[in-house]
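This week, think about what follows.
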Amino acid sequence: MARATNIATLRASDARDEDFDALLDALNAGMDETCEADAEQIEGDLDELCQELATESEPKVPASWHTPLSRAEHRLKSRITKRANSKPMPHEKLVGLLDEKMDLRGRPDGYKATAYNATLILQNDPRTHGALSLDLFTGNIRVEKPVQFRTVGLANISCEPGGDNFWDDHEGALNTWLGSPVEAGGWGLVVGAGSMANAVRNAAYQNASHPIYEQITSAKWDGKPRLDTALTRWLRLDERNQAYNHAVSRLTFVAAVTRLLEPGHKFDFMPVLQGIQGSAKSSLIEVWSLGYFGEISEPRQFTDSKVMNEMTAGKWFIELPELAALLGVNSRTVKSKLSSKADRARAAYSKYTEERKRGFITVGTSNDKGYLIDPTGNRRFWPLLVGATEQNPVDLASVRAEIQQVYAEALEAYRQMRCDQHEGDLPLFLTGEADEIAKRLQGEATIETPEHAFAGWLTGWLSEPSSGKFARVAIDGLTYRERFCMREAFEAYHRDAGMDRFPDYDSKATALVRGAIDMLPFVTKSTTARFERYGSQQSYAVDSDWLSSQVSEAETGDRDVVEDEQREDLAARPASSITDEWDMVESALSGAPKSAPTDTAVSLDGLSVPMNVASGTVSNVICIAPRK
């Protein structure tokens, strides 16, 4: 039987190693000649062959290492319509399917110039069959092979090995070929521009592929663990942060695979490669991207959704180079954009607004040790202290040799997570010890700002006993503020500095105070309330548990010992009547250049108090001055 011959040929050929869809195409060859009575035999042969292929799969690893496909992965595979062994339709059958046009006497007079007819021809004519494909990741149409038209006066379409992107000149050549006379080797279809564009896309959809998915599934995981230690080995990270390094390594590559299979999945974090220039940080990210790499370096590329779509289209890894400069210009915008799952904008020349779910992840790079500005958004950044140098940079060759297996392991990890949790967002975030180390590293990477200075003072002010309408929290016989307003804090700050007149409470002042309040996790926005001197104001509530802990710490500490230590430590330092912290805040309000704080102190009634605040920390007391 012809069917038996086909199966025997398959068993003896390289087609045994092709994917299941290619196997079906080969088995279905000559289906029209197979009688109905052979159906049961065919099904049995197919099952037998599938079992053979399954038992010969490589490498030989425990079944537990190969987790079933997730629903998202099944959906993606169903969209991959590229068939390695598919054949063009016989000419007679193709002609019979085309929509003919009739002359006035009802006789066939060629074919209608419709998108349907053009689609059938592009898909099934031997000259163009398989020439067009659709990249499901980038959305681009590609030319997969040269097209030999064999038509008088028409140049053929050539392409590079591996294919080329489809351009206007390719569409023009195809349209000219369709419209050329039958006698010259064409089809006599003069197709309009709109119909031609639809036909090209329809034909490409029937030959769709996903290059990144096909690349990371081209080899199964060999069972050797690499995922957790990859970043430590490649970047030479400090092994004292092992729990953090391993977690970030796993989450980064699992998140990349997750965004590939489930565009728009929640992942609002950014690993940041922090190291000296010339250590090959950017080149490393490009290797990770498997050729789908992009970068965003200007604030407008983040703020303009249309530009954002254009910059990230068809990219898997997006680098944010020199993160310090970008965050310094617009940290809040960067922070909010990292939390987005999709970007909505109308593309150039498009009639429709498009919401594109994100299939990429972002990775930052910085040559500076300090680049984080807004502590409320610091949790989104995962600093990685790169040990590679310009003299001894990252070994890109070893990364290229290993990256395939890293992604194979990340894919297995994703599948297992989806087996454990079928719906909803996967837990792609740090926990436990890794999260604690992250907070420390984020603090070390934080730049001191006027908001930090005000937040430090505000922490001390709120932990002091108070009186008045909102002093409702009683602890050990003293009362403390339950709530306050921004203007009250602003004036108290300058009153503590010994100032009789306060700067204008304008937009700069409110922005500074609001920024400081946002840094304090124990302060939350509350309802509008009436304050004695300021009238109706937005109020902010102070967490009572935090107040209790602050008072308890102050009582258990030996204050006299602390004061003696401060006197001894600062005795040799010259006192100053103005602190650098005040200068920072006042310059922020006035718009003057800001100076970095230095180690200074002020002597207040014989008690010297340190004025500097460690970078990345919020001090309980920044400055104490005698109240007037």
Observations:
- Residues 221-444 form a domain with the Rossmann fold fold (CATH 3.40.50).
- The chain has four domains: 2-57, 91-209, 221-444, 450-610.
- The chain has 23 helices and 20 strands.
